[in-house]
Amino acid sequence: MNPLFDLPPFPGFREDGLQFMRDLKRNNERDWFKPRKSTYDDELVWPMQCLIVQLTREASASKLPYQGDPGSSIFRIYRDTRFSKNKHPYKTHIGAVLTRTGDRKEPGGVYIHVEPGGSFIAGGFWNPERDLLLRFRQRMAAFPEEFIGIVDDLRSKGLHAEPEEKLKRMPRGIDATEDHPAAVYLKWKSFVASRSVTDDELQDPAFAETVLTTMRDMLPLLEYGWMLEGPSEPFDEQQ
């Protein structure tokens, strides 16, 4: 068993960790970061690992299909600057994802984003691959009430469900017009719900329960996408 799974309950992110991120935003350079990397590891990576382990245990106990790995579920802080005009070497947040298998690259999961003044929990399918995106749209076109009900439920639980990127016109290959019940959703490029998190919430050990509740609230959206990942078949409206 991975010894990293033998971690204590999530202790909260301390103010020292949040202040480190604020300072990094003002000093985003290697000469500043390298002598302070231990602060990043101790104040941000370690509590995030504790959070991942606790969430994996509690999700299993609650029969929720989520798991993470404290060694691989956390995204690296190092930015890929090769094709970017922004040459700052470091991200100014820490993020981690839990999926059905624990594989960070698996489509569909819950993402935890820790950034002073800009933290959030998000779940769903961000920029799905073309085939899966088509299946989302085919299913919505055939059974609009199904997806509309999921979005309405997410919003009733206080989640934000509105993607940043949307088409201006109906997608090609979808037999639907602007008066289709799900016309707005057929133009979405991602299918994600999110909940904002305050700095005070991050510092409270009870944040783990907030994430778990959010994971439970987001499950219908994730199950919808997971259902569509199988072989594509024609949708029979008489089913």
Q: What is the number of E strands? A: 4
CATH overall fold name: BirA Bifunctional Protein, domain 2
For the record, the CATH architecture stands as 2-Layer Sandwich
Q: What coarse outline follows from CA principal-axis ratios? A: globular
Mean pLDDT: 93
Overall structural domain count = 1
**Helix/strand-derived class?**
alpha+beta
The largest β sheet comes out as: 4 strands, antiparallel
Alpha-carbon distance between the two ends: 45 Å
Gyration radius over CA? 20 Å
In percent, how much strand structure appears in the residues?
5-15%
Name the helicity range.
40-55%
The arrangement of helices and strands along the chain is HHHEEEHHHEHH
Strand order of the largest sheet: 1-2-3-4
pLDDT < 50 runs, ≥5 residues: 231-239
| CATH structural class | Alpha Beta
CATH homologous superfamily identity: Protein of unknown function DUF1054
3D structure, described in words:
The chain is of the alpha+beta class. It has a single domain, classed as BirA Bifunctional Protein, domain 2, CATH 3.30.930.20. The protein has helices at residues 15-26, 30-33, 37-61, 130-142, 144-156, 183-186, 199-202, 207-228; strands at 94-98, 109-114, 119-125, 191-197. A four-stranded antiparallel sheet has the order 1-2-3-4.
Summed up:
With 239 residues, this protein is an alpha+beta fold. The protein has helices spanning 15-26, 30-33, 37-61, 130-142, 144-156, 183-186, 199-202, 207-228; strands spanning 94-98, 109-114, 119-125, 191-197.
